[in-house]
């Protein structure tokens, strides 16, 4: 079966338009409940969400789907995506679901499922759920006496706060550190400031006043200018920017300069390696990570294993290879010793642990390598992908030959939007720019 609903990170789309409708959510809830119901015990599912207005609609529709199949629902309310993964395991739920479109604007929303082990579902399981959604599920619904119940979970913030704090080195604090924290008006707006404050930091908060429509709006990890400016204005030691569901993070040093996920992965991996904590002798990252990271890791005696784009594929490779550090350039950092998915707040604490240990300013400690010049541009299309046209395939091969030995070309279709992403990187910035511009022009013409 060709997947039509599930993309690289669950089901996602514009709220109240197909596929992100109440009806789709209801059917997804029923199909997932029927998939995960095994045995005679009282089944339960955890539902978390970010702060989007449409979260109320999707939450209620999913709840209806779950309880109609005889499954009890535990409503966690606004909580980071990794918090849902944690609660799924700690409450021994049969599975969990996060309602979020991550870094997208408020108009979008999404549904991400987690298995009972706290890991995102495999492609095969998502395909099974989607296949079931296309069938008549009425005969499998619960009878009137076995309909499930729904209840709110008390002290979600307190549970997650303690969980995250335990990942910070024992006996160490953030005393004396001034931190600007941007929560993107999203899921971490309560818990992230609480964690940093309880660890001793002086916290300057922005993006902590969600109203349903301002998530990721000029704030968070996709719009870091406000955070970077605040760091300089307040003379802070570091800035932290989370995205809407807090599964990714970007850092600003004390000069207001941005530090991306590649630098953060290199920092954490090299620190863990020196302290005997790194497993697998490698970092797992996606094809988007900079060649500069790969070169730096080699100087540390480490390898870089690459996967397709998507933190789910990073986690799958981490589990296969035994690595415990992985992530994406965008700021998804997965720390396998502590979490089953990307956790922006947890990753930020590991960066802060390095800063408190070596006493160096963030501008020095967080810049381990010079990234290769890299350029990424998007081409929007409708209908069939233009990448399959012969002239486009030839142009990509020619571009690869031009950069062979000094760089690389990566052309891929987005898993969440109708976009072709055109990326090149290499030692020669002018050549990289020329290659990307030429490919974008050709693909744009083919997509017209």
Tell me the CATH superfamily of the largest domain.
Alpha-D-Glucose-1,6-Bisphosphate, subunit A, domain 3
The CATH topology of the largest domain comes to: Alpha-D-Glucose-1,6-Bisphosphate, Chain A, domain 3
Q: Which structural category fits the helices and strands?
A: alpha/beta
CATH class of the largest domain: Alpha Beta
**SS field, number of helical segments:** 14
Strand content: 15-25%
For the termini, the CA-CA separation is: 29 Å
How does the overall form come out from the CA principal axes? Answer: globular
Strand order of the largest sheet: 1-2-6-5-3-4-7
Radius of gyration from the CA trace? 22 Å
Give the biggest beta sheet: 7 strands, mixed
According to DSSP, the number of beta strands is 19
Domain tally: 3
The stretches of 5 or more residues where confidence is low (pLDDT under 50) are none
Describe this structure in words.
The protein is an alpha/beta fold and 448 residues long. It has 3 domains: 6-154, Alpha-D-Glucose-1,6-Bisphosphate, subunit A, domain 3 (Alpha-D-Glucose-1,6-Bisphosphate, Chain A, domain 3, 3-Layer(aba) Sandwich), CATH 3.40.120; 178-365, Alpha-D-Glucose-1,6-Bisphosphate, subunit A, domain 3 (Alpha-D-Glucose-1,6-Bisphosphate, Chain A, domain 3), CATH 3.40.120.10; 374-447, TATA-Binding Protein (2-Layer Sandwich). It contains 14 helices and 19 strands. Helix 1 runs parallel beside helix 2 (55-68) and helix 8 (261-274) packs across helix 11. The radius of gyration is 22 Å and the shape is globular.
């Amino acid at each position: 079966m060709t997947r039509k609903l599930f993309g690289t990170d669950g089901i996602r789309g514009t709220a109240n338009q197909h596929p992100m409708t109440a009806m789709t959510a209801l059917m997804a809830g029923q199909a997932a409940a029927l998939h995960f119901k095994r045995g005679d015990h009282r089944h339960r599912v955890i539902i978390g969400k970010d702060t989007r207005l449409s979260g109320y609609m999707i939450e209620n529709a999913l709840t209806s789907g779950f309880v109609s199949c005889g499954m009890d629902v535990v409503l966690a309310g606004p909580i980071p995506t990794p918090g849902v993964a944690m609660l799924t395991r700690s409450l021994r739920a049969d599975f969990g679901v996060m309602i979020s479109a991550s870094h997208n604007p408020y108009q979008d929303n999404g549904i991400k499922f987690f298995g009972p082990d706290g890991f995102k579902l495999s492609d095969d399981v998502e395909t099974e759920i989607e296949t079931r959604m296309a069938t008549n599920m009425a005969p499998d619904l619960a009878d009137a006496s076995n309909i499930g119940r729904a209840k709110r979970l008390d002290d979600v913030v307190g549970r997650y706060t303690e969980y995250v704090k335990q990942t910070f080195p024992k006996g160490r604090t953030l005393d004396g550190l001034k931190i600007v924290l941007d929560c993107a008006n999203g899921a971490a707006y309560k818990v992230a400031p609480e964690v940093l404050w309880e660890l001793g930091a002086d916290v300057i908060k922005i993006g902590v006043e969600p109203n349903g429509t301002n998530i990721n709006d000029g704030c968070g990890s996709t719009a870091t200018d406000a955070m970077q400016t605040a760091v300089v204005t307040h003379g802070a030691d570091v800035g932290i920017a989370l995205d809407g569901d807090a599964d990714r993070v970007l850092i600003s040093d004390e000069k207001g300069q941005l530090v991306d996920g590649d630098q953060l992965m290199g920092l954490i991996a090299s620190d863990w390696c020196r302290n005997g904590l790194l497993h697998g002798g490698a970092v797992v990252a996606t094809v988007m990570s900079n060649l500069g990271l790969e070169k730096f890791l080699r100087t540390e005696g480490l390898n870089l294993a690459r996967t397709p784009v998507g933190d789910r594929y990073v986690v799958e490779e981490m589990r296969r290879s035994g690595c415990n550090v992985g992530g994406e350039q965008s700021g998804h950092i997965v720390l396998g010793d502590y979490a089953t998915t990307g956790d922006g707040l947890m990753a930020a604490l590991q960066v802060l642990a390095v800063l408190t240990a070596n006493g160096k300013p963030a501008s020095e400690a967080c810049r381990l390598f010079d990234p290769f010049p890299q350029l990424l541009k998007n081409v929007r299309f409708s209908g069939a992908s233009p990448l399959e046209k012969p002239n486009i395939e030839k142009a990509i091969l020619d571009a690869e030959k031009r950069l062979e030995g000094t760089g690389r070309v990566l052309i891929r279709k987005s898993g969440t939007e109708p976009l072709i992403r055109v990326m090149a990187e290499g030692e020669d910035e002018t050549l990289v720019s020329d290659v990307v511009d030429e490919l974008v022009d050709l693909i744009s013409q083919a997509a017209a």
